[in-house]
Amino acid sequence: MADLELLIGDHRSARDRMRRALPTDPANQRYAELLMRALIAGGDGVGASRVYKSACTALAEAGYEPGSVLRRLAARAEHGEPVSSLPSRPGGFTGRAGELKAIEAAAAGTGERRAVWISGAPGVGKTGLASRRRTGCVTGSRTGSSWCGSTGSRRT
Predict the structure, then answer these.
(1) CATH number for the domain formed by residue range(s) 2-79
(2) Element containing residue 154 per DSSP (H, E)
(3) Range scoring the smallest mean pLDDT among 65-74, 81-90, 130-139, 142-151
(4) Is 91 within 8 Å of 139 (Cβ atoms)?
(5) Which residue from 8, 51, 98, 135 has the highest number of Cβ atoms inside 10 Å of its Cβ?
(6) E-assigned strands of 57-153?
(7) How far is CA 85 from CA 37, 81, 139, 147, 153, in A?
(8) Is the dihedral of CA 58, 69, 150, 41 positive or negative?
(9) For 5-89, where are the E strands, in sequence order?
């Protein structure tokens, strides 16, 4: 559930959920990852660093080391970088004015939550399109789908 909350930009709910879950299994790297992502998304890099240090301690007690995902998140928290798998600026970007207008229209709302689904075959420019409409956008790395959270739900 926290994955979905992060995908739609609800980092507070994900944070609260994972703050309750992590103490039940302090060496669970996935729980630590989700909590760190939620904290970083909320601008709490210090809190994310604390979670990393606690996870390292719990993992060491269990005879493990933190995985690459946790290490990368710790580095981002330390440097104040936002969690996103989108490039900061897409390369050459032309010919997508119609798609950008459709995303803007779908995301426009009056206070309700909205999600815009960008789908397509690999390599067609989903990430570039989502990066161009940067505000509230994340990419689902496991599915290859890009998500732009704004404020309901409409598929584009």
Answers:
(1) 1.25.40.10
(2) strand 154-155
(3) 142-151
(4) no
(5) 51
(6) 115-118, 137-140, 145-149
(7) 12, 11, 6, 11, 22
(8) positive
(9) none
The enclosing H or E element of 57 equals: helix 45-61
pTM of the model: 0.54
Segment 115-135 mean pLDDT? 72
Q: pLDDT tens digits, residue range 30-65? A: 999 999 999 998 889 999 999 999 999 999 999 999
Provide the residue type at 56 as one letter: C
Show me where the domains of the chain are located. Answer: 2-79, 97-155
- Amino acid identity of residue 79, one-letter, is H
Q: Do 140 and 133 meet the contact criterion of CB atoms below 8 Å apart?
A: no
Q: Tell me what the mean pLDDT of segment 140-155 comes to.
A: 41
